[in-house]
Amino acid sequence: MLGFAQRRRRDWISGRALQLSAQTARARSHNDASFQQLRNMTAKSDRDDRQKYWFGIATTMKQSSNVVDTRKLYLIIRQVSGKPLTLSDSVHHVNGGFSADNSAKVDC
After folding, report:
1. Residue 55 pLDDT greater than 90, yes or no
2. Does position 46 have pLDDT exceeding 80, yes or no?
3. What phi-psi label fits residue 30: left (phi over 0), alpha (psi between -120 and 50 degrees) or beta?
4. How far is 70 from 81, CA to CA, in rounded Å?
């Protein structure tokens, strides 16, 4: 929509964390006594999800570094920096489309 900034969903937020967040919001609006407990559970779930996400990113980067896959390292860095991939970052498909990774067949 024009005039509205779309909120970017964080990559590490799981479906469980989103459900807990919705439950917390409902409990808060109804002045429910379980609000504080739900709030703590939501915060813990968010922390755990974030740790898993960054551990996975670090592991992937380390593996890519060990096999000297600079293309994959570059793409991971672009992904986590929040910068969108540019056209020059893409690889052409055989059918004329674009791919963000080089796992598909490419034109030579």
Report:
1. yes
2. yes
3. alpha
4. 16
